[in-house]
Design goal:
The complex is a heterodimer of chains A (265) and B (70).
Chain A (H helix, E strand, L loop, with lengths): L12 E3 L2 E3 L3 E3 L7 H11 L3 E8 L20 E5 L6 H13 L5 E4 L12 H13 L3 E6 L3 H9 L4 E4 L13 H10 L5 E3 L5 H9 L4 E4 L1 H4 L4 H21 L20
Parallel strand pairs in A: 3-10, 4-5, 5-6, 6-7, 7-8, 9-10
Antiparallel strand pairs in A: 1-2
Helix pairs in contact in A: 1-8, 2-3, 6-8
Chain B lengths: L3 E6 L2 E6 L4 H7 L8 E4 L2 E3 L14 E9 L2
Parallel strand pairs in B: 1-5
Antiparallel strand pairs in B: 1-2, 3-4, 3-5
Classes of the chains: A alpha/beta (265), B mainly beta (70).
Chain lengths: 265, 70
Amino acid sequence: MTTAVETLRDTPFSIGGRTFQSRLMVGTGKYRDNETMVRAIEASGAEIVTVAVRRVDLDRTKEAGILHHLDPRKYFLLANTAGCYTAQDAVRYARLAREAGFNEFVKLEVIGDQETLLPDVQGLLDAARTLVREGFKVLAYTNEDLVTALRLEEAGCAAVMPLASPIGSGLGLLNPYGVRTIKRRLKVPVVVDAGVGTASDACVTMEQGVDGILMNTALAAARDPVAMAHAMRLAVEAGRSAYLAGRMPRREVAVPSSPLEGMLD
Amino acid sequence: MSDTIDVMINGERRTVAAGVTLLELLGSLELDPRVVVVEHNRAIVRRPRLSGVTVAEGDSIELVHFVGGG
């Protein structure tokens, strides 16, 4: 007799020819200190970790970049083009990131609006086409619009990353239908990026059937980032398992769980 | 010929020795060429070539690295 819980066999999580165990990806921004960041990333179980490209601070050069805290042999570093508002800028940042020498993957962001940080889909498509032509594996941060997602796939993106809600908002999954539809229609992996606030958000998002989630602020801005990272790890696994298990149908009326027969007179 | 030249590094005007190479420039700024990417007049200069490129008056140099981000 087996006492261990038999978990459903999952398909591997692969992006651009690389396979990963964890479906949770995490960012490295906005932590109060590097030690907390490192411990939170460890607790999250994430293998893919995002970083940004910025100017070296010339006057405080002993203040090291992120690589002094994150071992690139332990984590798969995914550079982003955060802060870019044009396709041209995003391509420039992606090229610089690739030159830093870890891999040809880039999380492409082309932002169209300062207040909401929503993507400029035209710029995104232009940049994606250029980068794919140059041999990049592009993971494109986009909104939950199906047609844009389809165009990004056609452009050769390695993954499409619709938002749950605006970056850093913590509002959770605002458009489950949109995200589910993108997942249903695309062949490339769909990873929800941005907007998850707490563990239930991550769970509900994974229950839509998406391949993974990328989050940053939900961990960095939690009162205890390490504990939240652990919660997120469990939530992503729970949501994935629930998706694979297949939920019961929703009903408008109650159906008793206990037998109707055998009641006392 | 002057012993020094003015260049723009990360948007700041800086005075450096005339004839300095990009690799020497990184050294003088105490930057590790293994973790810094150099863009010289908008063109990326790969690590092995840093010692072969000499900086000229008015050049624009960007020195970037990875920082925390989402």
